[in-house]
Amino acid sequence: MFQFWVSLYRKYAADSERGFEGMENPGYRSGSFDSLHQSSDDDDDEMVDIAGATLDFSNTDDDPPLSSGGYEEHSSSSRAAGMNGNGPSKFVDPLEDPLPGVGTYEDFNTIDWVREKTKDRDRHREITNKSKLSTVALLHSISDAFSGWLLMLLVGLMSGALAGGIDIAAHWLTDMKEGVCLIGFWFNHEHCCWTSNETTFKERDQCPQWQSWAELITGTSEGPFAYIMNYLMYIFWALLFAFLAVTLVRAFAPYACGSGIPEIKTILSGFIIRGYLGKWTLIIKTITLVLAVSSGLSLGKEGPLVHVACCCANILCHLFTKYRKNEAKRREVLSAAAAVGVSVAFGAPIGGVLFSLEEVSYYFPLKTLWRSFFAALVAAFTLRSINPFGNSRLVLFYVEFHAPWHMLELAPFILLGIFGGLWGALFIRANIAWCRRRKTTRLGHYPVMEVLVVTALTAVVAYPNSYTRMSGAELISELFNDCSLLDSSQLCGYKPPANTSETGVGNSLADRPAGEGLYTALWQLALALVFKIMVTVITFGMKVPSGLFIPSMAVGAIAGRLLGVGMEQLAYYHHDWFLFKGWCSPGADCITPGLYAMVGAAACLGGVTRMTVSLVVIMFELTGGLEYIVPLMAATMTSKWVADAFGREGIYEAHIRLNGYPFLEPKEEFEHSSLTVDVMRPRRSDPALAVLTQEGMTVEEVEALVESTRYSGFPVVVSQESQRLVGFVFRRDLLISIDNARKRQEGVVGASQVVFTEHAPAHAADAPPPLRLRGILDLSPFTVTDHTPMDITVDIFRKLGLRQCLVTHNGRLLGIITKKDILKHMAQIANRDPDSILFN
């Protein structure tokens, strides 16, 4: 694909102002330039539902509107010059005098990848040529080359600092639901008891400095009244945190809800959603993520951290001109930022880079790979310096296993993979059905009430069970834990060894019969498994920041721990079976239940997201053990195969389709034998294609054509009779150029000729001067013939990031095929509603 890009760039090097967009765009409502950038508070009817949030099309938080700044200053200075008698009397040619706004994109449109890459190459060539002329230009060239690495450094530092703050704040607020520290309310439970001399080893989390709400209010921590008081305070804090989270999202940043990964995948494919990566989204998402995680809802912070990191990258891009003015270059930075998000979420820099490459990125050149690695490294180092958990680890559930695994254990590992695949397929179908119900019924009209009801239900059911009461990360840490002689956890409630010589590897226990405490823990885990499976379905997709990594891993870790304990007891009581002979002798540490929990977590996360390579590397970085890669690979691949048998879409692709984003999934194969003539527009019953001629049309006629249609671009032909294709012009560029010419060029009126030829035709002395617009014309639009197979056309759209392609027959223009047309056609083939594709 990289060689394909290179050859393509060489072919189109001479044309740096290309443009091809011919889709119907409901965002355009009039033919004047003012209507393009007009943004008023009264425009309440142009709203759209994205990721479950009702949003305004006019939101341009991350990029200032064209109506402010550059364009108006440019126009006003031109008008002033004209009034002083110094205005230009020659023809205005956009090729010779580039206009502000030309070459930019409207909200909810797709970028032109080839044009953006060509612009960047031309800019780089100009800087390189100038660097040979002077020392200042040479220094500018060096700073330009270094700016990408500096930007990655800043993204890593900012994302790591925010992730550390989120971890510390979430830990503190989670503990606040159960009590408060008397020596300082800002201390969480663990930090509060660090300096206490009155803790015991078995009850190291109990100290006089930390008091539960029952102790603080009633003076006692024992008895039914104290339990009820703690129960009610737990529910109160959970509802308060959830209410604050959903209110802040609804009031200040509707884009801050959800995971963010489906939208980031769409943005990285070239789609523009103004404000989704803006400063308000960053601020509100950071605050509400802490509140949502602390409320006890079945969600995680790992997915939203990817969104937070991408917001940081998008904001910092505005400090560097080459990233601020080039959408393709900015998406390279966003791909690196996605790697940073996973790096700080799991403490896995290499896994983060592979996650960005495998799961979210659309275009990932080798240079982006290096910069992603550097940014992920800086972010992990920053988080390590902050040390949010006080144990020199980047995540709460870091573990180290010592006991080796045996080849026969691959069977239960594969069994966990089957469970993970079934869970993933079931979850995706159930969650999409629930989210569709939310979008199509009155349930979606009451987001605050929905969040409060789900939070109340979660808190009421979760509190009595210690494994559902604790946070998701703490639960996974408990399940991953390898029992040692000094562990006081219920999961390590085995019967004591008959003699002290029966110990396993290191400080771990040998396989022992389960005691009363372990049986109690297993019942609680079984109930927690059922609860997590049910409540995660209705939680993911609500109007609060909600990640899916931790809940999915928790489900798999519970299932894995249950299976691991079962295998351990089977090996203890039946060590003379042929399955265990030779490698599991009495008194040996044969089975590690924590390893089963880790494999189950990977299997369930893989079943939901369909991650493979990156998931294995993330889990390897979490455990630090190379010997467990084979079990992880076996479970992850089994999980993917089983889940793919029920549907090839992961949860993020399913939400992209549910929201109608224009995203061509690279993994989806096109197997239909149709041709472009079957998909292109206009169809046989449609009116003729709206085109411009290279000469002969007046400004008034062009404006009338633009105003009577809603297309984002127009093919330019030699004449209406011949229909020989000349090029393609953007609607946006056309309106900006006409509007600017009226202000800067004398004599341009409605009767002025609009010409796209290289030389202006002769005109009568009394005729108004023509308007030359060849500079905004794309002279080499992508074309296919009417008999090109659709599978080839789809590949062209995917690999080049096209928005549309013109269809010709022997050089004559027949029609146009757009990205939206392809998505609708693919939906029809799959027996889905083609009108579900909402955006251009």
Automatic annotation (TrEMBL):
It is found in: Endosome membrane; Membrane. Residues 680-744, 776-834 form the CBS domain. Keywords: CBS domain, Chloride, Endosome, Ion transport, Membrane, Transmembrane, Transmembrane helix, Transport. Residues 19-91 are annotated as: Disordered. InterPro entries: CBS_dom, CBS_dom_sf, Cl-channel_core, ClC. It comes from the Eukaryota. Pfam families: CBS, Voltage_CLC. It is a multi-pass membrane protein. The keyword Ion transport applies. GO terms for cellular component: early endosome; endosome membrane; Golgi apparatus; plasma membrane; synaptic vesicle. The keyword Transmembrane applies. Its main location: membrane. The chain crosses the membrane at residues 149-173, 231-256, 277-299, 305-321, 333-357, 410-432, 444-463, 521-542, 554-575, 595-620. One of its GO terms (molecular function) is voltage-gated chloride channel activity. Belongs to the chloride channel (TC 2.A.49) family. This is Chloride channel protein. It comes from Sander lucioperca (Pike-perch). The gene is clcn5b.
